[in-house]
Amino acid sequence: MKALILFFFLTCCISLFPQNADTTKPVAPPAPKKEKNALKSNINEDGSHFFQVIFMNQTWVRFNESNPGTTLFGKMAPETFDIGLRRTRIQMFGQITDRTFIYFQFGQNNFNNTFNYTGNRKLAPFFHDALCEYKVSKGNQLKLGGGLTVTNGLSRFSQPSVGSIMTLDVPVFLQYSVDQIDQFDRRLAIYARGQIGKLDYRVYLSNPFPISSNGNIAPAIGKNATFVNTAAFSNNAAYPNGYGPGINNQYGGYFAWNFFENEGHNTPYMQGTYLGTKKVWNIAIGGVYQKNATWYLSKDTAGSYKDTSYANMMHLSFETFLDMPLNKEKGTAVNFFAGYYNTNYGHNYLRYNGIMNPGTGYAPSTATTMVQTSGYGNSIPMFGTGQLVYAQFGYLLPKNLLGENNGQLMPYISGQYADYEALQHHAMVMVDAGVNWLIKGHNSKLSLDYQNRPTYNLDANSNVKNGSRKGSVILQYQIMF
Predict the structure, then answer these.
(1) Contacts with 35 (C-beta within 8 Å, 6 or more apart), sequence order
(2) Euclidean distance between the first and the last CA atom of the chain, given in angstroms as a whole number
(3) Which of 286, 296, 375, 393 could serve as 254's disulfide partner, Cβ 3.0–4.6 Å?
(4) What is the pLDDT of residues 461-472, one digit of tens each?
(5) What CATH superfamily classification does 2-10+60-480 receive?
(6) Distance CA 132, CA 147 (A)
(7) For the purposes of burial, counting CB atoms within 10 Å of the CB of 397, is it exposed (0-12), middle (13-18) or buried (19 or more)?
(8) Residues with Cβ < 8 Å from 106, sequence gap 6 or more?
(9) For residue 262, what are the CA distances in angstroms to 176, 197, 274?
């Protein structure tokens, strides 16, 4: 409730501030100054060959109602307040020749005072992307590429252009194996992508990383296994029979049909919202497959361990995305997205995750026994075997609402529904609502968001029970140039 009250207070502040700036006597605006086209260097005279650098920083200020049992540096913390860097990135890319494209991204994520608090907080930045791409056709019909890449098969939000998203954050559950067998949603892969008429496609083959290299302790195996009757990503160590499943290649594809304009195709990333500059509507299907990606142990009726069982990971999706202007003179536009997902990691797979988690631990009590001890702070059961629906809607308000040169407001709402096998089919429902103040489009953007999320606990018989709902209020300032 405190988070909700704070959210409404800040909403009033963010709505009134730009209008108050317009209370003085109006004066004639100065002539607009012509700005340089970003940090871009043309290699040839017509600019078709270029190299560009983009910097982005997202600063968060957040109040969070903690999940039950949360501790912060060893102290019980029913509420937390933190300041952090959600994303700090440098992008470097260029069309070097008519056919040759190169892309790098370097930076860090989720940096607050709990980041790696038991280790070295300075070990954070890393390469997100490093890829080379060759355009086989003169147009965009076929591009072949490879390297460390976000190119994906499940969803447009599995490969999002995070600087242009409409909501405060992306639906991270669509980055289905983030930091488990990939590098923050990137993978070493070869791919083909392109546009043939109204069809936008991409297919890839990747070599997943072993989970033992993700920086965390690998799951136990054999009779000491933590994951009995619960799937976990396969370790590359020896199993009870002396052999592991190996690490198999991952395959995926994403296919979208555009009814109006085709989307941009410069980088593999997909736009969040065009703010009314394009008329886009598409429907898409996607999928991801990896053989023996997870494993689990089961018991027979006598309570003895059976042989290790392996499961294939297979995710399927169906999506629609709409982003178009409504009144070009007023500058209004609408954004809508909806998707259905069938995610199969293996029997009872469930993974909790908290975005830039403001908690550091969990203190169990007789009143609260969480489904997973990683469920402290702001964590939710984000990934799991089951079925999910996600939708978002936003409306870009008229450009003269805040006065001349004061930007535009774009309120939004999003919702996620998940039916996970491991939660014994207790619905996981999360809602976000907020507003963007687009001071200068996505280049200078202030966002205020309220999130409401569920908690779960176990009774004495290990049955899942619904817990209390918690909220958080986040103020983000994004600068990108």
Answers:
(1) none
(2) 37
(3) 286
(4) 889 999 999 999
(5) Porin (2.40.160.10)
(6) 7
(7) middle
(8) 89, 90, 92, 125, 126, 127, 128
(9) 27, 9, 12
What CA–CA distances, in Å, run from 257 to 145, 282, 339? 22, 5, 15
CA distance 350 to 346: 10
- DSSP-derived pairing of the beta strands 100-111 and 126-135: antiparallel
CA distance 381 to 181: 18
**DSSP 8-state code for residue 151:** -
**Contact, 355 vs 320, CB < 8 A?**
no
The rounded distance, in Å, linking the Cα atoms of 379 and 431 is: 14
Token reading at 358: 């403001």
Amino acid at 333: A
- Ranges of each domain in the chain: 2-10+60-480
71-108 tens-digit pLDDT = 999 999 999 999 999 999 999 999 999 999 999 999 99
Residue 15 has pLDDT above 70, yes or no: no
Alpha-carbon distance values, 27 to 18, 23, 30, 336, 403 (Å): 17, 11, 9, 38, 12
